[in-house]
Amino acid sequence: TSTSWAQDVITCDLCDKPTQQFCNSCQVNLCEICVKKHRDEFKSLIHEIVPFLGELMDKVRVIATIPSTYSSLWGLACVGEAEAWIYGRNKITRIDIHGAVKDTFTTTCPNCPKSISVTRGRELVYSDVNRKVNIVRHGKSERLITTPRGWTPGGLCCTRSKDVLVHVYTGSGRQTKNKMIRYQGQNIKQDINNDGQGNPIFQEGYFFLFISENNNGDVCVSDLNANTVVVVDKTGRVRFRYDGTPARRENSFNPRGIVTDALNRIIVADYNNDCLHILDQNGQFLRCVDDCGL
Q1: Mean pLDDT within 9-35
Q2: In this structure, which long-range contacts are made by residues 45-49, counting pairs with CB atoms below 8 Å and at least 24 apart in sequence?
Q3: Looking at residue 2, what is its pLDDT?
Q4: Is CB count within 10 Å lower at the N or C end of the chain?
Q5: What does residue 190 show for φ and ψ, rounded to 5 degrees?
Q6: For the residues of 155-175, what is the DSSP string, one character each?
Q7: What is the DSSP string of 169-197?
Q8: 186: alpha, beta or left, given left = phi > 0 and alpha = psi -120 to 50?
Q9: Residue 253: how many other CB atoms lie within 10 Å
Q10: pLDDT reported for residue 272
């Protein structure tokens, strides 16, 4: 089957109109009407608004270096264009692009949450022990999802369609089994586990899966147990795997955090090589970023 997909229309991040402008400072897609709205919402920031081209820059430019008080930073989840929740141990902190603390939430997790994400309504979601995925509302934690008996939640991703993708695992050590479940509310909508031949999509092992959903509906996963990026379509069919070989880096590929951009490009952190790999939506390697102080 062909893996060539038509490029989706890139829409404004504040409405559903086609993108015409791009804020380089905040990395936000904007239509002409929403440019003023974006400037007014974040008046304290300097906004570099440029025509939307959708092309990779020749040289990467660091737009902000954000300090935190964590000795070990375990992860982050963006809240809009200029804030993010970050976490280490059992405290989760919301900061702005300058590092100023806007909010904090202390969980009851024994060590720290397994993962965090943010809903379309900007509510914080985190995975806990005892088969729980919790959501924070009005400063209090509520159970959002209970995973199947015997399966523990790990990585999370809140999607544009308001579903929640949850990495769940069972067992221990190198025999730990991993799969993905898509939840709509508290109900299981999709179980992403085996390919068309009945083989497991994700490698057995004790490392968590990092998840991101692309604009075209693909689920992009860093499978650290296999040192591979796995991308499945919205039906759960494996579209491609990427093992880092085209980048020709010195050390073995070690994928961790993974995100996608407005043009459906996939950006994955490579822990062993201190760089970012950028792929197009069909898995074609585009470039590595290693010149910005990583």
Answers
A1: 83
A2: 45/82, 45/97, 47/23, 48/23, 48/24, 49/21, 49/22, 49/23, 49/24
A3: 31
A4: N
A5: -155, 140
A6: EEEE-TTS-EEEEEEES-GGG
A7: EES-GGG-EEEEEEEETTEEEEEE-B-TT
A8: alpha
A9: 19
A10: 93
Contact between residue 128 and residue 134 where contact means Cβ atoms under 8 Å apart: yes
Stronger pLDDT, 13 or 2, i.e. the higher one: 13
Average pLDDT, the chain: 88
Tokens 């968590």 correspond to what residue? 208
Q: In what order do the strands lie in the sheet with 152-158?
A: 152-158, 164-170, 177-184, 187-192
Q: Which two tokens stand for residue 8?
A: 């989706």
Amino acid identity of residue 260, one-letter, is: T
pLDDT tens column, 106-117: 988 877 889 999
Tokens 């919790």 locate to 134
The tens digit of pLDDT for each residue in 267-291 reads 999 999 999 999 999 999 998 988 7
Place of tokens 């015409």: 20
CA distance 157 to 182: 9
- Side-chain-side CA neighbours of 173 within 13 Å: the count stands at 1
Q: Which residues are CB-contacts of 75 (< 8 A; sequence separation ≥ 6)?
A: 86, 87, 115, 116, 257
> CA–CA separation, 253 vs 273, rounded Å?
7
Interatomic CA distance for residues 85 and 211, integer angstroms: 17
Which residue has 């090589």 as its token pair? Answer: 273
Q: Kindly tell me if the per-residue pLDDT of 97 is higher than 90.
A: no
In one-letter notation, the amino acid at residue 22 is: F
Strand partners, 230: 221, 241
